[in-house]
Amino acid sequence: MKIIRYISVLLLGCILISVGINFFFVSYHLLDGGIFGAGLIAHYIWRVPVGMTILIISIPIYIGAWFYYRPFFYHSLAGVLTSSFLIDLLAAFTPTTPILSPLPSAIVGGLMLGIGAGIMFLLDISTGGFDLLAQMISARTAWNVGILIVGFDLAVVVAGIPIVSFDEIILSTIAVIATGIATTMITAWGGGHTHNHLSL
């Protein structure tokens, strides 16, 4: 039953993230934070697949996890591979006409990413990238993983300022805040730090 629960949460979380990115963020040229935001920036500039970019950027973080936080390496491997695959798979179904207007798209997309990441964190599943980095920092500090992710997310949004409009930056910031709120609430509700029962 544990493996069924693990796979179900993994797929649900990654699908929520993939839909949020492709159906709500890309439609309005919005940025997410963290590793997904980095993938979106690369996509907007060079038209490269978001998922493929996520995998490439995650490599150095995974090298660090292999040497210093190996349990997190194993727990996040399925998350980064599945989310990257589904993001690029669902990109083919991105609607040509936006589903919602800009502000609701930013909020709904951000909440979907936050909920997707949050429910996976409850089972120690990470989507890699800066989420994995946040988990590693959280393992050594008293900081909530959701709060750490907000910090990384906002940093990436700032880095994306040169390629998006002012309105898109505002909407992207709202999306990042929505993501952080959803992730923080879910991880706090589920016991706060998901690393507590890992064997480090």
TrEMBL record:
Membrane association type: Multi-pass membrane protein
Transmembrane segments: 7-31, 43-65, 72-93, 99-123, 143-163, 169-190
Keywords of this entry: Cell membrane, Membrane, Transmembrane, Transmembrane helix
Locations listed in the record: Cell membrane
GO CC, alphabetical: plasma membrane
Descriptive protein name: Uncharacterized 5xTM membrane BCR, YitT family COG1284
Source organism per UniProt: Shouchella lonarensis
Upper lineage: Bacteria, Bacillati, Bacillota, Bacilli, Bacillales
